[in-house]
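the six lines:
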Amino acid sequence: MSSELSGSEGTSRRERRVQRQRKEIMDAAAHLFAERGYSATTTKDLALAADIGESTLYGYFASKREVLVAILSEKAEQVDSAFSEGLNPADRNGLIHLADKIMDIVLTNVLYTRALIGEAWVSDEILHNYVISRTNRISSYLRDLITAGVSSKMFRPIDPRLGARIVMATFVGALLPVLRGIESPPSPKRRRALAETVVSLLLDGVLVRNPA
Amino acid sequence: MSSELSGSEGTSRRERRVQRQRKEIMDAAAHLFAERGYSATTTKDLALAADIGESTLYGYFASKREVLVAILSEKAEQVDSAFSEGLNPADRNGLIHLADKIMDIVLTNVLYTRALIGEAWVSDEILHNYVISRTNRISSYLRDLITAGVSSKMFRPIDPRLGARIVMATFVGALLPVLRGIESPPSPKRRRALAETVVSLLLDGVLVRNPA
Amino acid sequence: MSSELSGSEGTSRRERRVQRQRKEIMDAAAHLFAERGYSATTTKDLALAADIGESTLYGYFASKREVLVAILSEKAEQVDSAFSEGLNPADRNGLIHLADKIMDIVLTNVLYTRALIGEAWVSDEILHNYVISRTNRISSYLRDLITAGVSSKMFRPIDPRLGARIVMATFVGALLPVLRGIESPPSPKRRRALAETVVSLLLDGVLVRNPA
Amino acid sequence: MSSELSGSEGTSRRERRVQRQRKEIMDAAAHLFAERGYSATTTKDLALAADIGESTLYGYFASKREVLVAILSEKAEQVDSAFSEGLNPADRNGLIHLADKIMDIVLTNVLYTRALIGEAWVSDEILHNYVISRTNRISSYLRDLITAGVSSKMFRPIDPRLGARIVMATFVGALLPVLRGIESPPSPKRRRALAETVVSLLLDGVLVRNPA
DNA sequence: CATGAATGAGCGTTCATTCAT
DNA sequence: AATGAATGAACGCTCATTCAT
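prediction for all of em together
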């Protein structure tokens, strides 16, 4: 009956409150980091946005940079776990689903991703730990896919390396305006349509076939 | 006798010297802004890199931000003049040439572009004045191209808006790693090959045709 | 039944517990104050060393400075009571015993004394209340001793004021390295030997006598 | 005639001004460090005392600690150079002169020395670099002196180590009240008298000789 | 009563900009 | 025209103390 007993899994009420507060700070911070960049965001801004005293921040994070790292790490975990479910899209529908999923992950974390890219643009450490290590996995997956497509004669004989790069480039470029905040995120419906168009374009090209 | 008289066309020797100094400062600044971002670059850094006193800076620019604006404006002019020569690539070779040219412009100004993107990522003012106003023109051109292609039955009936976006996305995404400094710029030869592959992929898609 | 009633003499069980806790805090604090100084010791350090919550401290002391004052007052009491037993060393053995005793008091309270000196070095209040008021008594005792020695023709006619000062200086200087932690405290045996040497040197000087 | 030429030794007018300003800051700082200790002195205090802006400080010193180090290093140099002139006091007058000299050095640098001791009391680094390295040299010198005195049968057979320690202790203890600011520095005359008494006491002891 | 959490005040330090020369 | 020196404002961060539980 006591509060000690009420937490059955070792996460006491206090600990949960700490986690909630951390999350609130991280959300507010992601917002600011995304909007004006890490360097240009002050701890005063963070405190104000999270509605706490400036020094209270340091009860939850050891430094301003730790807030950034916590944000990015959390996001990284989410992305990793999302991709850990096997990706085996051999057909057109599978590809569309994959494209849709990637966009879903990015778009439901717009702020986090925007902050990530902003800092990765100037920090090699962030770039390698949180971007390249992730994109390498996707790139590797795409290369395998293309190689399989080519050897099964379904695809024209293109360089898998180059092909993978172009596919990724297309997605990255397509998502940038949303991440930057120029465009509002597409509805699930429009997202699906975009995925279909991209996949169709990649597979079929833009030219009319069989100009019989 | 005086320097006033020696320059008959308004660009006196003194003025030319000022312009040369401004340019040197801008080059050094572009380097630093690109590498570590505008916010994280100090005026001391700028002065050191340009080999002048910290206060001398203010003889040439009204503020640190003015240096950034000057850099971006100069770049914008270059890009605009590059695109002002009519772009009329109706055929495959014209498209390849266009792709090559865009990449050329970006890649011969890596530092400037990197600095531009870095700051446009956080500043709406920079974004609209120096990025969107530029991309809109390219986008508009691509839409026209696609519309023409579709109505002439050369292209499959795709949404010109979406098509233009995807084409641009592909280029942007492909150039990002070079801008960020992960990859070294491609040689003219490899650049041409890349342009050909991209255009080929866009036009023909990846699937084998005539699975007759 | 209540704790109020259980303690018939004013020192209830609770009060004893409070005193014990205060003592524990003071011991931990003396350690820290001695090692790094009062200013450089944080209340967090104190709480950690005393194994209590940071705010619990304020249940036992009104402020950080109160902890210091409590430490010094306790030490002052000990010293006073140690000296209150009459000091009447008229002969060489008595002097040696006195020297030994002073060193004993200081050395069994190294931490306290080190903290005291450290703070007295910068705080006039501490200096006068806890150092000078104590040293004056010893000084006065020594002056009497010397005066007696001189008038009984046992000592050469030296200024008692100056003599007392030099004797105290010798002891203070000799103990500093131990207080500062450069040297480990001497064993009782070595302490006695030191006392003998000092007294011998003071009484007899270093020159060979009667080289007759 | 130009300012370039006026500085004949490479120390330009500017450089001299910088050195003067540094010195002024160091003097003000020594005062404050001596009075309230290094930890308890803020950069604001320093700036106020030196009558400059708080940030101006950093044009002359890299950090608050650098100010301390500069003060102590300068003092160390003075002491070293003072002792570098050979110390060869074989007779009573030589000893008195030595004692007088040591006191002179310390007393003409009361503030510096007080700051030094205050910080050496809590910082091992300061203690070893600026105190022990200095005292070791004096101690070594005194041991040699005593050894010589003993082997020439002028001194009674005492342990040179212990003897040196006691001599130093006497001086240190005697100077402490002045350093701490309890007593004003003695006049040269009184200083000489003190030196004579100390040496006399050390050599002859306090007891009357030839109690025939 | 003990405590983790919160915080205002202030710390040492940096920086874009101005000023005196 | 060029600059070293100066600085107010603000930075990221710490700390003695208070408060809610």
